[in-house]
């Protein structure tokens, strides 16, 4: 009987510790996929939420995993309130800090995108004492030109419908004015005959 009591207490304690760990974790939020045109610049947005206030020891790590799954490459670091650009690698001189720690924003900008930048970027935030949490992932696709998306189609459809409506309203107004002038002429002719 005593063994069951200990087992039950251990299970309850384990569940409470797990809930406490999840409550103290850092949550990282990113777009899942970003499509950008070759040669342009792209902001990779990463925000976070933490159960603790932003600490002086907050650290941010951006890493890159190419599509060919070769080794991870560091992209950018932020630690002790200072951004650190990479000193070597494909992103040297091509990445800039664009975050605002007070707004829980740890975003970066990649300059002059190239097809070799296709892959997955990860954003990890550690905000002491919240050292556990999710890692944000952004899949970047660099294309030669923007494809005709649903948004473009919707914009063309709305623009066409608006133009058609303007043409119809203009035609109705012109027809009414033409009828009014014709009626006024008939009235003038009838008045002169009397």
TrEMBL record:
Database matches in Gene3D superfamilies: Immunoglobulins
One GO process term, biological-process aspect: cell-cell adhesion
InterPro entries (UniProt xref): Ig-like_dom, Ig-like_dom_sf, Ig-like_fold, Ig_sub, Ig_V-set, Myelin_P0-rel
Transmembrane regions: 151-175
Compartment list: Membrane
PROSITE patterns: IG_LIKE
Bilayer topology term: Single-pass type I membrane protein
Family matches, as Pfam families: V-set
Main location: membrane
Keywords, in A-Z order: Disulfide bond, Glycoprotein, Immunoglobulin domain, Membrane, Signal, Transmembrane, Transmembrane helix
Entry coiled-coil feature ranges: none
Signal peptide region: 1-25
Cellular component GO terms held in the UniProt record: plasma membrane
Homology family: Belongs to the myelin P0 protein family.
Protein name, as recorded: MPZL2 protein
Gene that encodes it: Mpzl2
């Amino acid at each position: 009987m005593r063994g069951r009591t200990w087992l039950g207490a251990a299970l309850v304690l384990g569940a409470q510790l797990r809930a406490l760990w999840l409550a103290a974790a850092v949550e990282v939020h990113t777009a899942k996929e970003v499509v950008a045109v070759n040669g342009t610049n792209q902001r990779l947005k990463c925000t976070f939420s933490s159960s603790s206030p932003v600490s002086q020891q907050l650290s941010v790590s951006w890493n890159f995993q190419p599509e060919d799954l070769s080794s991870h490459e560091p992209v950018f670091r932020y630690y002790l309130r200072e951004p650190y650009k990479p000193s070597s690698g494909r992103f040297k001189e091509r990445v800039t800090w664009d975050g605002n720690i007070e707004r829980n924003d740890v975003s970066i900008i990649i300059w002059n995108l190239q097809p070799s930048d296709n892959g997955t970027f990860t954003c990890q935030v550690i905000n002491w004492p919240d050292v556990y949490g999710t890692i944000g992932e952004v899949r970047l696709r660099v294309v030669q030109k923007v494809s005709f998306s649903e948004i473009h189609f919707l914009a063309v459809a709305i623009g066409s419908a608006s133009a058609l409506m303007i043409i119809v309203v203009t035609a109705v107004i012109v027809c009414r004015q033409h009828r009014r002038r014709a009626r006024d002429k008939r009235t003038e002719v009838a008045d002169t005959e009397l």
